[in-house]
Amino acid sequence: MDEASTSASGGSAGRGGRSFPPARSGVFYRFTQQDLPAWKPAMTPGCVITIFLIIGITFVPIGLVCLQASNSVAEIVHRYDIDCVPNAYRGNKQAYIKDSSISKKCIQKVQVRYRMKAPIYVYYELDNFYQNHYMSKVEAISNYAMGSSTLKAHAVR
Length: 157
Prior knowledge:
mainly alpha; 0% strand; flat
């Protein structure tokens, strides 16, 4: 037997194993070529029913706890954009916002009809306002700087 036929593992052909060239031997090659033994479970109906019951018994209580927590949330929606804008500006709210001579202070009382436990979280929601507003403003200004003839007034606010 010549040295060219021995593998990198020291010539396993002489010990009764298969002979591979040095590049085709080793665990990494067997893994990348999916030449490893696989686990092939026998899924009998009894096994499937057992697994289904175990998963159901595990996740049904978790779902019930989440449902109870969701049902105990008190949500109050209060719109103040109608009450805080003067009657003269109800049709044109942008003019009200731009007019610096008018006070924008608005006090609203919200009555809560639920009994709530601490901690109480207050969330604020904005409509027609998008997170990428700043990026569109920067893009409009950079387009103007690159030679675009017009700069839209709404893009720089």
